[in-house]
Structures are given as C-alpha cells and as structure tokens.
Design a protein that fits this description.
Layout: H1 2-25, H2 31-44, E1 86-87, H3 88-105, H4 112-130, E2 137-141, H5 144-148, E3 163-166, H6 173-189, H7 195-214, H8 219-223, H9 238-252, H10 255-264, H11 280-291, H12 300-312, E4 322-323, E5 329-330, H13 337-357, E6 361-363, E7 366-368, H14 370-385, H15 409-412, H16 429-433, H17 463-466, H18 470-486
Antiparallel strand pairs: 1-2, 2-3, 4-5, 6-7
This protein binds 2-acetamido-2-deoxy-beta-D-glucopyranose (NAG) (2 copies).
Length: 488
C-alpha cells in the first residue's frame, strides 16, 4: 500500500512537471484571428472578375476569357494551389468542405460567417456555369503542362487555357458527382442566407448527380493527360456517387438518395481515407448523424466511422497513421497538412454527434469519449498554429514566425499595382529563385507542412512542404470556428 501511495505521488508530481513544462513552452494561440485569415485566403485564390468587396487587393482580375475556346463564359472559380489551373475535382471538394464547415459551425463564426458565405458562393456561382447545359459538365480549365512550364502571375497568363469537358459519351462520374455534392451541401449552408439561390443549387445538384450516375466512367479515361498525373481519380468514382447521394439526401430528405447510399455503401469497403480523392470516411461521419441512435444498429456507417476514429487515436491498437515526435499526424503522400485538417474536422464533427447520442468508441481495450477526439484535434490545430518544435505557424500571416517563401505564383511576384508591365512565362523565374521572402502575403494560406522529423525547409523548391492548396484550408475553417468559441 505504501509503495502504491508513493508511486501515485510521484506520478502526480511528474504530471505536474509535464503540465508546467507545456505551459512554459506553449505559444498563446488566437483561434479567432486564424479563422478570419483562413477564410481570407480564398480571396487570394479567386479567378475572374474581382468584386469591389475584394479585401486581398494585390490580386486583380484574371483569366476573363476562360471558356472562350468552347464559346462559354467560364470566368470565376478558384485557382487550385500555387499554380493557375482550375481543377474542378478538388475545387468541388473544397466547396463541399467550406459548406460543411458552415453547416456545422457557421453559428460560431460571428462576423466571419458573411465571408464564409462569400467563399462558398464564389465556388457555387462558378459550378452553376460549369453545369449550365444538361448532360455536360465542364471538368477543368487550363492545360496543366502548359501552366506548369511558366512561373506567371494569373493576371498575365498566356498559357493554354484549354477547357476540358465530360459528356454522356466521355463521362466523368467523380468530378460530376463531387460537383453535385458541392451544390447540395452549399444549398444547405446558404439556405438562410439566400433561399431562392439555395433552392436553385439543390435543383442543379440533382440534375448533375443524375448525369454522373446515369453515364458512368472516370475522367481519367475521358480527359486523360489533362487530369493525370495531377488529379487522377485513383480510387474510382463510386465514393463520389455515394457522397453526392448522401449530401442530396441531407439537403432534400428524398428517400431515393438514402436508398442509393444504403445499397452502395458496402461496395466501398471500410476505407478510412478522406480527402479530394477519397470520400469514404466523410460519408460515414456525415451519415452517422442520422443513424447513430438507430436501435437496430445494423448499418455499417457507425462501425466504419468508429474504425476511422480507431485508426487515428494515438493510443489505439488499430492506429493507421503515425505521429511525429512533435505530435503531428502523418499519412503517406504529399501535402501532409491536408490530412491533418480534414481528419481534425471529422474528429470534431463525430465528437459532436457522439456527445448528442451519449456514445463512446471502443478501440480494442481503449474507450474513447468525445473529449478524447476533441483533444486530439486540438493538438493538431495547435501544432499547425505554432505549438511545435520549430515554434512556427504553418499559416501564412498568422503568428510571429510563418513560411516566407511559399510555392505560389501570384504571391511571389509584384502586384499589377506595383509592376503593371507584362511578366512573361519564364521572366518570373527570378522571383521563384530569389532568396527573399514572397512579395505579397497570401494571408491565411496553410502550406503542405513539415517533414516527419518536424523540420521545415522554407523553400519554393520544396513543393510538398511550401505549397498551399484550397482543400488544406477548407475543412480548417470549421475546425477553427469550433475552437474559437470553445477557447476564445
Ligand atoms: C486513374 O488513373 C490512375 C493512375 O493511372 C489509376 O491508378 C486509377 O486506377 C485510375 N482510376 C480509374 C477510376 O480509372
Ligand atoms: C523538403 O525538406 C525536407 C526537410 O524538412 C527534406 O527532408 C526533403 O527532402 C525536402 N524535399 C525536397 C524536394 O527538397
């Protein structure tokens, strides 16, 4: 007994030492500031005519003639990352995740909610154009090979702005179904903001889903080297079809979509991936909201979602990700922070549903409560914002120390305001190769992030580390809103 007491005491003092150590080490974080910036970032990615309300003013109108090669007006939308291509597949996923962020956490966003609405609408206005003709979906604009061979401002582009289209004979079920998901999710997110517009989005979502489902095929084959190896659909289009149906069900309550989800979920298997290509884990978490308290509990959604949680928790026996010494989640593949932000989102959303239903998750002998999921997400958010071995934030313009040389064309070159003359294809190289920080601050951009040893090379050449993308940021918008209200 005595021995026990001593060990408990020493455990306590050890714990106390650890708490003090983390208190001393940690950087104070401002989730509200990070939230504002995470949304502002999307203004820096805008293509087309910029509105008078544009806050990131170093960016100007660009790519105004997009679509002219097929006699369509396709100005607008978002540039994907550090290049100037409009890849509609990841753009649609980005829009879906912005919408989901608002659906779950919009009421916690305060004055930023209006900007979040605008960010969604910048996507949906564009997708309404891309789907204006029945049985045709504009799948991408800009030839990636041509784009990547230049380092140009979007405002100067003279690369090939080829338009890629999918049709009934050259189908693209993944890109079409993801656009349907984006339109359906946005119709929910914007329903209180603009009812008429929201109903219009839902109507279009149904049409686009039918096209995706009735004319099945991968845009890999229909578009070929326009999309591969850039945003190849690696794991097939069934996940997008089920995901699209799940969003349509949530938006419309139409049982047809629920039946589609139920009869096709088994074909996806228990994959725990979630990102622009794989929607599996997102489907299960999304559907779990409805079926968690289902007494028959014969659905696979809850067990699949539980498997996801068990694949993430650091002390779970079925953990399928790794954690760096500094505590950052890692999963194979480039731009690691895309996994960090999207999994953090799912952790918080699932924790909320668990809370409502008084549910816990069993991972072998480890029992996880909602708070465990939230705490894990918090360690990830805090790492991204500065509580990491390098004491740096991975969000541009946030905190004292952040990436200075991000791989992003517009951000490296002077604004048209400062240098109105055309900068030709390879004349941008000197900005790319410069040892100086980027000229324009792409505020709020989250980069690909550090290596597994927690090191970060602040270099434009290190693309997987220093390039931001829209789908790294989108789920983080919701996550930051959650932590802002929890810990203002
Ligand atoms: C798309 O192409 C990639 C790369 O070649 C391949 O791995 C994947 O299986 C293809 N997907 C489909 C749905 O054909
Ligand atoms: C990027 O930087 C990391 C160190 O943080 C290094 O391990 C990796 O090899 C670099 N990649 C490239 C392409 O330079």
């Amino acid at each position: 007994m005595r021995g026990n007491k001593i060990s408990i005491l020493s455990q306590r003092s050890l714990l106390l030492t650890m708490i003090i150590a983390t208190m001393v080490k940690s950087v104070p974080l401002n989730y509200g500031d990070a939230l504002t910036k995470s949304i502002l970032f999307f203004e820096g990615q805008r293509s087309g005519y910029l509105p008078a309300s544009q806050r990131m003013t170093w960016r100007k109108n660009s790519a105004l003639n997009d679509g002219s090669d097929i006699n369509m007006r396709m100005d607008g939308g978002y540039y994907d990352a550090g290049d100037n291509v409009k890849f509609h597949f990841p753009m649609a996923f980005t829009t879906t995740m912005l919408a989901w962020s608002v659906i779950e956490f919009g009421d916690l966003m305060g004055p930023d909610l209006q900007h979040a609405f605008e960010a969604i609408r910048w996507g949906t206005d564009y997708f309404l154009k891309a789907t204006i003709y029945p049985n045709v979906v504009i799948a991408q604009i800009g030839d990636p090979n041509s784009d990547h061979s230049c380092w140009e401002r979007p405002e100067d582009m003279d690369t090939s702005r080829k338009t890629y289209v999918v049709t009934t004979t050259k189908p693209g079920s993944e890109v079409s179904a993801e656009i349907a998901a984006a339109l359906a999710a946005s119709s929910i997110a914007l329903s209180k903001n603009d009812g008429r517009y929201s109903r219009n989005l839902l109507l279009r979502a149904k049409q686009v889903f039918d096209f995706a489902n009735n004319h099945r095929g991968s845009y890999n084959d229909s578009i070929g080297d326009g999309v591969c190896p850039f945003y190849c659909d690696f794991n097939g289009y069934m996940d997008e079809l089920v995901w699209g149906a799940a969003w349509l069900y949530k938006a419309s309550n139409d049982i047809t979509y629920w039946n589609f989800v139920k009869s096709n979920i088994q074909s996806l298997g228990p994959l725990t991936e979630f990102g622009w290509d794989a929607k599996h884990a997102g489907i299960n978490v999304l559907i779990s909201e409805r079926v968690m308290n289902d007494p028959s509990n014969q659905n696979p959604f809850i067990s699949n979602a539980d498997n996801l949680i068990c694949s993430l928790l650091p002390n779970s026996p079925t953990k399928a990700v790794t954690y760096s010494k500094g505590g950052l989640l890692f999963k194979l593949g480039p731009s690691n922070l895309q996994h960090v932000t999207s999994y953090s989102f799912l952790l918080i959303v699932y924790a909320r549903y668990m809370q409502v239903n008084h549910k816990t998750v069993n991972c072998g002998n480890v029992v996880a409560k909602p708070a465990d999921l939230v705490n894990l997400a918090k360690t990830q958010v805090d790492y991204v914002l500065g509580n990491n071995p390098l004491r740096m934030s991975y969000m541009v313009g946030y905190g004292q120390k952040f990436p200075q040389k991000i791989h992003h064309r517009a951000s490296t070159m002077p604004s048209i305001d400062v240098y109105p003359k055309h900068i030709k294809c390879r004349d941008g190289d000197k900005y790319f190769e410069s040892q100086s920080p980027n000229i324009n601050l792409l505020t709020g951009a989250i980069v690909g992030g550090p290596a597994e040893d927690d090191s970060y090379q602040d270099s434009r050449f290190n693309v997987t580390q220093s390039e931001p993308t829209t789908y790294i940021n989108a789920p983080f918008v919701g996550v930051l809103a959650y932590f802002k209200q929890r810990n203002p």
